[in-house]
């Protein structure tokens, strides 16, 4: 499904240059296809703000090549921003009030960086809950990523996420445990998903909340679950939207934190991500970093280009297939009036007729 470049957001040009399907508005108007309007509440910090735009917009656009997508980006003003990101948001993002006035067919809510053990103590908690509450009553389906999943479980079901003994970080094998749901129709029954988090909501917590688990990993836990009605809220704990280099960039950031004295230990490798050849390169880089720190000399540069050529993406196609299934089902039941959740006659407590 091609994106429609309905604004001057630089991400459209970046995606077009990288080979993704992006239509100009004039061409889009001449196609007799009902467009879809999808919101993206981007709560990621400045360093990942635009990368997150690209990741979610890309996986949406690659999910299907027929319908047209208008992506409506917005954020929460309570999130701290530097001057550059604030200017980017001011120029290219919409306000939540504007989003509410026009309506959406579907909504994606990203994760965010947090500073408090209890999510309810975060400065963005109340505005986030306002978005979540509004979307449930006004949007056909909302897809929650990582922290957004944890926030909804805490807000709607009083299930607080739990701190893991160590960061769950890497690419993990998953299995479809409920093959009857349309979201996993015609996808691989076993596939990989990246994870990067310090907390989790367990299968027991999802089930205690009356939610249905669709995909999980014996090592990484639940990845995909759905709300009691089986569609109006979709929960991800993993990151199928990640680029092939996303975990490499996170690893590089952790190395730099170690070099700056901001973490005590040299970072471990993300699980199941670096092949032995890459691990050998990175062990050599670690030795050079430690030697430079001991000598007080300039740090060596991580050979990202070399490593990038040795990485494998084992998750994107299945992730895109799931997004395609999600969007296809939204398309089938959403109202032509974006301010209404469903077509006339659709049961909001069972919108896909699965019960």
Task: Tell me about this structure.
With 355 residues, the chain is an alpha/beta fold. The chain folds into two domains: 3-243 and 313-333, 3-Layer(aba) Sandwich (Rossmann fold), CATH 3.40.50; 246-308, no CATH class. Helices cover 38% and strands 19% of the residues. It has helices at 10-17, 25-29, 46-61, 83-92, 96-102, 125-138, 147-157, 203-208, 246-259, 276-295, 304-308, 316-333; strands at residues 3-4, 22-23, 36-41, 69-74, 106-109, 141-145, 162-176, 190-200, 212-217, 221-226, 233-236. A nine-stranded mixed beta sheet has the order 4-3-5-6-11-10-9-7-8, with helices on both faces. A two-stranded parallel ribbon has the order 1-2. α1 packs across α3 (46-61). The two termini are 29 Å apart. The mean pLDDT is 95.
């Amino acid at each position: 499904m091609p994106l429609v470049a309905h604004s001057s957001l630089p991400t459209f040009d970046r995606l077009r240059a990288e080979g993704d399907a992006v239509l100009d508005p004039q061409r889009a108007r001449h196609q007799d296809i009902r467009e879809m309007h999808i919101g993206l509440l981007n709560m990621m910090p400045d360093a990942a703000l635009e990368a997150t735009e690209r990741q979610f917009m890309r996986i949406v656009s690659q999910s299907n090549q027929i319908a047209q997508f208008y992506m409506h980006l917005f954020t929460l003003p309570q999130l701290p921003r530097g001057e550059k990101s604030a200017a980017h948001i001011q120029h290219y993002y919409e306000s939540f009030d504007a989003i509410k006035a026009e309506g959406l067919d579907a909504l994606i809510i990203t994760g965010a960086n947090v500073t408090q053990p209890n999510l309810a103590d975060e400065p963005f908690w109340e505005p986030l809950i306002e978005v979540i509450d509004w979307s449930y009553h006004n949007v056909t389906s909302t897809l929650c990523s990582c922290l957004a999943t944890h926030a909804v479980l805490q807000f709607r079901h009083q299930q607080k996420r739990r701190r893991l003994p160590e960061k769950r970080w890497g690419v993990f094998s998953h299995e479809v445990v409920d093959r009857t749901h349309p979201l996993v129709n015609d996808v691989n029954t076993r596939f990989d998903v990246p994870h990067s988090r310090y907390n989790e909501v367990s299968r027991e917590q999802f089930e205690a909340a009356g939610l249905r688990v669709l995909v999980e990993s014996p090592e990484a836990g639940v990845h995909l679950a759905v709300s009691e009605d089986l569609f109006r809220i979709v929960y991800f704990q993993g990151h199928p939207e990640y680029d092939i280099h996303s975990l490499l960039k996170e690893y590089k950031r952790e190395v730099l934190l170690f070099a700056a004295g901001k973490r005590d230990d040299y970072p471990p490798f993300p699980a199941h991500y670096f092949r032995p050849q890459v691990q050998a390169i990175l062990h050599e880089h670690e030795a050079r970093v430690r030697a430079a720190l001991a000598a007080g000399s300039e740090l060596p540069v991580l050979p990202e280009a070399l490593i990038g050529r040795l990485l494998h993406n084992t998750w994107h196609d299945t992730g895109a297939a799931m997004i395609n299934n999600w969007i296809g089902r939204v398309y089938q039941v959403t109202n032509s009036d974006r301010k209404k959740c469903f077509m006339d006659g659709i049961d909001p407590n069972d919108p896909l007729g699965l019960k």
